[in-house]
């Protein structure tokens, strides 16, 4: 789901900036948690970050393409920029299927040639 977190939620002093940036006239709704997906319905939930604090996901789950879209390099480079600025950090989460999928059958059947 699409959401933004602001201190105070819809009452935040940042909302005028959000409205100004809303050039596609997306519907902004109060987010309370556990809302349905917003894919395809032009809705963004505005969460009150004082009640719903930010919890960072694994780095491999941030700033990547999704199944329906490919994003520009300028989007992908944000991860490195935010890491360098200390705004996100390595979570040290264990490897998982999404970040490190098992090799495909083609990978398993491809011979590896090493030179020593």
Describe the overall structure.
The chain has 116 residues and is of the alpha/beta class. The protein has four helices and three strands. It has helices at residues 15-21, 73-76, 78-85, 105-109, and strands at 3-6, 27-30, 43-48.
Sheet/helix structural class: alpha/beta
- Roughly how many Å is the radius of gyration? 19 Å
Number of helices: 4
Task: Give the H and E element order.
Answer: EHEEHHH
Strand content: 5-15%
Query: What topology, given as strand order, has the largest sheet?
Result: 1-3-2
Low-confidence stretches: none
Distance between the termini: 50 Å
Largest sheet: 3 strands, parallel
> Can you tell me the overall shape?
globular
Percent of residues in helical segments? 10-25%
Query: What is the number of beta strands?
Result: 3
State mean pLDDT (0 to 100 scale): 84
What would a concise description of this structure say?
This protein is an alpha/beta fold and 116 residues long. It contains four helices and three strands. It has helices at residues 15-21, 73-76, 78-85, 105-109, and strands at 3-6, 27-30, 43-48.
């Amino acid at each position: 789901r699409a959401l933004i977190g602001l201190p105070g939620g819809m009452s935040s002093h940042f909302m005028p900036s959000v409205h100004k940036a809303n050039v596609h006239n997306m519907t902004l709704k109060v987010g309370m948690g556990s809302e349905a997906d917003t894919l395809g319905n032009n809705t963004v939930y505005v969460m009150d970050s004082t009640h719903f604090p930010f919890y960072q996901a694994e780095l491999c789950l941030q700033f990547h393409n999704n199944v329906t879209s490919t994003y520009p390099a300028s989007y992908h480079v944000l991860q490195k920029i935010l890491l360098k600025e200390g705004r996100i950090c390595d979570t040290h989460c264990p490897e998982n299927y999404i970040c490190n999928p098992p090799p495909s059958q083609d990978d398993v059947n491809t011979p590896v040639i090493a030179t020593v």
